[in-house]
Structures are given as C-alpha cells and as structure tokens.
Design a protein that fits this description.
Strand content: under 5%
Order of helices and strands: HHHHHHHEEHHHHHHH
Number of helices: 14
Radius of gyration: 21 Å
Number of strands: 2
Helix content: over 70%
Strand order of the largest sheet: 1-2
CATH architecture: Orthogonal Bundle
Distance between the termini: 35 Å
Structural class: mainly alpha
CATH topology: ABC transporter involved in vitamin B12 uptake, BtuC
CATH class: Mainly Alpha
Length: 341
C-alpha cells in the first residue's frame, strides 16, 4: 500500500470515527426506533406515521423557538407554561355560541385571527421581557425563564379560574379553529403544513439574514461578537421574543389539535423541546445547530414516545428512558465541546 493510500485510509477511519462520535446519541435513538419497529411492525403503518407527524408538528414549532435561545448557550424553562397560556387565551375566545360552559358567555363570533394574535402577542411579550432581563441585567437565561415560568403559570391560572369558568377545562371550540389542528388539505394535515412553513421561515432567518448570523455569532463568542459591532442587547431581545412567538404559536395549534385547553397544558413540553434540540445537534454551549437537525430530533423523540406506549412500556419507565436520553445527549455534547477546546 502506498503512503498516499495509507493516509487516505487513516483519514477515512478518523472521519468515520468522528462521525460516529458526533452522532452517537442520534444513532442510539435510531437503533431504539428500529427495535420498537421490530417488536411491533404496525407502528410503521401510514396511519401511525401520520399521527406521529401530527403530534410532532407543534413540538417542531416549539423546538425551533427553543433553538434560538439554546444557540446562545441559554435555555427557556418557561416554554411549557407559555404553551399553556397561549392555548387557554385562544381557546377561551373561540368557543361555539351554543356551548353550555362558555368562558365568555356574552362574547359574539369574533374573527379567528383576533384571539390567535392576542395569544401569540402574550407569548412574544414574555419572551421580550426575558431577553431584556438576560441582556440588561446579565441574569442567566435559566434563572430569568424559571422566574417567568412561575409568573406565567400563576397569571394563566388566575385567568383560567375567572368566573364563570372557575378552572373548568375549556371545550366546545369552533370548527374553524380546530380545523387548524385536525383538518386536512387532501391527505396532508393542515398542522403539518404549518410546521413545514414555519421551518422554512426559521431556516431563512438563521441562514439568509443578518439577524440569524448575529445569533450564531453571539452564541459562539459573545465577546468577539461585541467587538465586531454586533448589538448584543438587540440580538438577545430579538431572539427571546422570536422564541416566545413560536412557542405561543405552538400553544395555539396544540389547543386547536386537541380541541380544548387547561392551565396545565404544555407542562413539561420545554424538556422535550430541549432534548429534541440537543439530540438534533444544537449545542448547549451555543453557536452550533441546524433547523434540519432539530426537526429530525423532534420526530425521532416523538416516535420513541409514541412507540414506547405502542409496545406497552410502563409510563414510569418511559420517564426514566427520556431522562437517560436527555442526560446522554447533553453529556455527548459537552464531551464534543471539551474535545474541541
């Protein structure tokens, strides 16, 4: 074997080894998916796959919002409560006129966009506030969003407990609203189209705009970004606001998909979103991540959640497995970061 051939062989081995190390947790999850499919092949049916994609759609939108914050090395712990807030606000104003327990008995048939815009605006506002706290007061993102998580849940619970609702689950939603979550255009569910459109827009923002490049720069090296003239405060406020917008949008669509809402909607969703991002290659240290990776992470994570239930795994064991996946994904990410530096 010539020296050049030997060099190419060794380079190929190193590249293959590096790929396996970089994608280790991803490959393990794919193996778990294969095992689930072997145990019960029915999970690969078109109907099941369609259900998984529909359930994944709102989570994709939420995870893409979470991605903006994680790209800066932070995390939004209030994401799940923002989902609940947006779901309750939108659902409370979009009930059918003949529903017995209407949240607003005297409210007429208002345009569907009005409650949706109010719900999304609320999520965006909390996101902007989080961004200001992080940027102006240098409060770590997980502390700022932990505080907002408690505030959002408290405010949402007070709203949800208003008379005459008195903390009753909100139901009887209008068909034009539920169509967004469960309707279809031909064979394609509307909610999947929503997720696809949002994914394309987020990809454009991150890859084709100055703001997107600034997000990666701030996440990769905030000191160097500041020296190069990037406005750190505006970037952080903008990305937290965008995160809140997308998470609130996912909450609205979740209410439309399930046909109801309570103040506990979205509880724990932020953990799945964080796990999906990390599994999809978004580095917890900041500056690294792709839209396609996040989408793949969400779909695989959703498939595993659905699959474990499908094959009859005890829900308590499912929580253990999810916890192991999260800590493994973060461990691999930190290991790559340490090795890189």
């Amino acid at each position: 074997m010539s020296a050049n051939s030997l060099a190419y062989t060794l380079l190929g081995k190193r590249t293959a080894k590096q790929f396996v190390m970089d994608k280790a947790i991803f490959l393990v999850l794919l193996l778990l998916v294969i095992v689930i499919a072997i145990i019960n092949p029915r999970i690969l049916s078109i109907r099941v796959m369609r259900d998984v994609l529909m359930m994944s759609s709102t989570k994709v939108i939420m995870a893409l919002g979470m991605m903006f914050v994680i790209l800066t090395g932070g995390v939004d712990l209030g994401g799940g409560r923002t989902v609940g807030l947006a779901a309750v606000i939108s659902a409370s104003m979009l009930q059918t006129p003949d529903y017995v327990r209407r949240f607003y008995p005297g409210l007429g048939q208002i345009p569907i966009l009005v409650p949706i815009m109010i719900a999304v605006a609320a999520g965006t506002l909390f996101g902007i506030i989080n961004g200001l706290i992080v940027a102006k007061f240098k409060v770590p993102a997980f502390i700022a969003t932990l505080s907002s998580m408690l505030i959002i849940y408290g405010a949402n619970s007070i709203y949800f407990n208003m008379a005459p609702n008195n903390s009753q689950p909100i139901g009887g939603l209008r068909s034009d609203f539920t169509y967004l979550g469960s309707g279809s255009i031909g064979f394609m569910p509307v909610i999947i189209i929503f997720a696809a459109v949002v994914s394309v827009i987020v990809w454009i923002i991150l890859n084709k705009t100055v703001f997107g490049k600034n997000v990666y720069a701030v996440g990769g090296n905030p000191e160097a970004a500041a020296v190069s003239g990037i406005n750190i405060t505006k970037t952080l406020v903008g990305l937290f606001g965008l995160c809140g917008f997308l998470i609130a949008l996912s909450g609205v669509l979740e209410a439309a998909r399930t046909g109801g809402a309570t103040n506990n909607y979205g509880s724990g969703y932020e953990l799945d979103a964080i796990a999906s991002c990390v599994v999809g290659g978004v580095s917890t240290t900041g500056g690294v991540g792709t839209v396609s990776g996040v989408i793949a992470g969400v779909i695989i994570f959703s498939f595993i959640n659905y699959g474990l239930t499908f094959v009859g795994v005890n829900p308590y064991w499912q929580n253990i497995i999810k916890g192991l996946i999260i800590v493994s994904a973060v461990s691999f990410d930190i290991r790559k970061y340490v090795k890189k530096n």
